[in-house]
Amino acid sequence: MENSLLIALSRQTTLKREMASVANNIANMNTHAYKRESMMFDDYLMRSKGGDAIMGDKLMFVRDVSQYRDMSEGSLEETGNPLDVAVHGEGFFVVETEGGNRYTRNGHFQLNDEGVVVTSDGNPVLTEDGEQIQTNPTDTRIEISRTGQIYTDAGEIGKLGIVQFENPQFMKKVSNTLYSSADAGTQVEMPHVIQGKLELSNVQPIIEMTRMIEVHRSYEKAKNLVTKEDERMRKALSLVRDQ
């Protein structure tokens, strides 16, 4: 297989991953607090055997280096639900799971049968002290202050744990809005918490559709190159056999 074919195939492979990333963004455009993702690509050079060839002695291939997560804040949606909470600015809610603490900006919370504040997946939301948030069956109100203090009929029952990380790009994705980190993060001293609102996805549909069209066109170009190169090689082999 010739080098031009290998280069085209490397391009197709990276474009396939890019298309998967774009498709996932579009699928989660209505997922609360979802963060847009994109692939990071890099060209790398490889010395060829024919150093005196017309094209020089270097070949350029494409590879996907990593996946970049756009951590910019999405717009806020007002719900009026007292257990819907949004973080304005930096910070993640801390969630207790079987695999350890996880982090999310999706503040769509609810009460389980025991009166514990949990996520929509049933994972307990933690306070800044690492405790679960326990309410009483007789409570008629839940109020959350701008800085995260939680009040019920019994008074203050805790403060939401809001942590930040030096580099959120190092966080590992557990689900579309849940992340894990080897670093426990640091508490945000003065968080800006908004009760009755949820952060929306920061995906911009028009941009993603444009990206999808561009990726598709690039993939088709690489595909045509592979097809033409395959035909050229077949013709060359046919001429060799006929001699």
TrEMBL record:
Keyword Plastid in annotation: no
Main location: other
Domain Flagellar basal body rod protein N-terminal: 5-35
Record localization: Bacterial flagellum basal body
Entry-linked Pfam families: Flg_bb_rod (PF00460), Flg_bbr_C (PF06429), LlgE_F_G_D1 (PF22692)
A single BP term in Gene Ontology: bacterial-type flagellum-dependent swarming motility
Domain Flagellar hook protein FlgE/F/G-like D1: 86-151
Residue stretches making up the Flagellar basal-body/hook protein C-terminal domain: 195-239
One GO location term (cellular component): bacterial-type flagellum basal body, rod
Keywords for the protein's UniProt record, in alphabetical order: Bacterial flagellum, Cell projection, Cilium, Flagellum
Keyword Ubl conjugation: no
PANTHER family to which the protein is assigned, alphabetical: FLAGELLAR BASAL-BODY ROD PROTEIN FLGG, FLAGELLAR PROTEIN
NCBIfam families for this protein: FlgEFG_subfam, flgF
Family statement: Belongs to the flagella basal body rod proteins family.
Assembly behavior: The basal body constitutes a major portion of the flagellar organelle and consists of five rings (E,L,P,S, and M) mounted on a central rod. The rod consists of about 26 subunits of FlgG in the distal portion, and FlgB, FlgC and FlgF are thought to build up the proximal portion of the rod with about 6 subunits each.
Protein's name according to its UniProt entry: Flagellar basal-body rod protein FlgF
Taxonomic placement: Bacteria, Pseudomonadati, Pseudomonadota, Alphaproteobacteria, Rhodospirillales
